[in-house]
Design brief:
The chain is α/β, with parallel strands linked by helices. It contains twelve helices and 17 strands. It has two domains: 162 residues, VC0802-like (2-Layer Sandwich); 210 residues, Vaccinia Virus protein VP39 (Rossmann fold). Strands 9, 10, 11, 12, 13, 14, 15, 16 and 17 form a nine-stranded mixed sheet that branches. It is elongated, with a radius of gyration of 23 Å. The protein binds S-adenosylmethionine (SAM).
């Protein structure tokens, strides 16, 4: 079966996330082609409700029911599409690299007129939006009680599951401890967890765990987690957040958080882990772009922390484990983990995405780069 995956804000990350998620689970997938917005993927039947919850970079997944581009075949498919509605139907179409949208709308209008169903074509509330947002699709119940069509080139698909931003907001707002300066975004945290090939029942370590965002997103994917942070308050906050998460979301997986320095963490953690995923300390909060001299100064403080951490990470990772790490760039000075030690190789994606992947955080002076690394033996 072929599916359209509508990709989130960072399409390269979203694509790589799909590759790593499917590879880690030995799922028989093929990313047939992709644009900046949509990936066409061949997959066996999966639990798609679970999949969309477990990945962070995909907005919706739609099942393709016509891909010929032949107008009479499209008309036939649309007329035979199963719709369990008797009186009123809300629907929307989002179209990427395709000129079929108007034709599809005409055919649907004609079908609904004949079937005496009142239809309402839903447009985004914001004029600048091209398509309905996930919140609008959820609020208008288009998936359960309506119809959301996605078109990519000649592929016409019906949305089956959608990313739920309300669940993320709720987790973000309701967790007991927040620290805006130290917190990784939930969506990025989820993507990083998947880039590390972590899956159910494996063990993931975050060595600069802060308030525990990466750990919480991993726990929700049924992964056991270990956290380390040098700051006692962060350790307490992570503990509180994860306790809250376990009781709220009912996960049976285990967590342990240790106070400690990641440059000597093998003294505390005695078992090997399947993955290390982390956004390390990136120096003092910057209000302005640093001069070359300031960048050099910050880098000179960070280098020993990063190098010490990488040496320890190599000791703690299983042979086939992965290290996913965000590294900062100050001006034109990139903290490249491959230059800091000679212990890791960079992961080579099967799709044509080049690592490291830059990742822009709004209102941040520092540029960030996401690395996926594999330990040299
Ligand atoms: C960017 S924050 C991590 C954010 C975290 N991913 C989250 O979402 O909450 C960096 C953390 O590294 C911790 N840290 C700094 N130096 C450290 C070291 N040498 N070992 C362990 N933790 C350290 C800081 O206390 C801070 O909590």
């Amino acid at each position: 079966m072929n599916y359209l995956f509508v990709l989130g804000r960072d399409p390269e990350l979203s694509l790589l996330e799909l590759e790593c998620y499917f590879e880690a689970r030995n799922i028989d997938y093929k990313i047939i082609e992709y644009s900046n917005e949509v990936a066409l993927v061949s997959l066996p039947k999966l639990d798609f409700s679970r999949l969309i919850k477990e990945i962070g970079g995909t907005i919706k997944i739609a099942e393709i029911f016509s891909d010929s581009g032949n107008l009479s075949e499209i008309e036939h498919s649309l007329n035979n599409m199963k719709i369990d509605i008797d009186k009123r139907l809300d629907y929307a179409i989002s179209s990427y690299n395709s000129s079929l949208q108007d034709f599809i709308r005409e055919i649907l209008k004609e079908r609904f007129r004949k079937e005496k169903i009142k239809v309402f074509y839903k447009k985004p509330a914001r004029k600048t939006d091209r398509f309905l947002t996930p919140s609008e699709i959820i609020n208008k119940k288009l998936i359960e009680n309506g119809l959301d069509i996605v078109v990519y080139k000649n592929n016409i698909a019906r949305t089956i599951v959608i990313f739920n931003p309300f669940e993320y907001q709720e987790r973000d707002l309701k967790r007991p401890k927040k620290d805006f300066l130290k917190t990784t975004s939930l969506r990025i945290a989820r993507i990083l967890v998947n880039l590390s090939y972590s899956k159910e029942d494996s063990t993931l370590l975050d060595s600069f765990c802060g308030t525990g965002t990466i750990l919480q997103e991993a726990l929700l994917n049924n992964i056991n987690v270990i956290g380390v942070d040098i700051d006692r308050k962060s350790v307490d906050h992570s503990n509180e957040n994860l306790k809250w998460l376990k009781s709220t979301y009912n996960t049976s997986k285990k967590f342990s958080i240790y106070p400690g320095d990641s440059t000597s963490m093998s003294q505390i953690i005695k078992t090997k882990v399947d993955a290390i995923v982390t956004e390390p300390y990136m120096g003092p909060f910057l209000k302005n772009i640093p001069s070359r001299q300031e960048s050099e100064f910050i880098a000179s403080k960070l280098r020993p922390i990063y190098t010490g951490f990488l040496i320890e990470a190599h000791k703690l990772l299983k042979k086939n484990g992965k290290l996913v790490i965000i590294m900062p760039k100050f001006g034109d000075l990139l903290m490249d983990p491959l230059r800091l030690t000679d212990l890791f190789n960079i992961y080579r994606p099967r799709i044509s995405v080049k690592l490291p992947i830059p990742y822009i955080l709004k209102n941040s002076i520092i540029e960030r780069y996401i690395y996926v690394l594999e330990p040299k033996q």
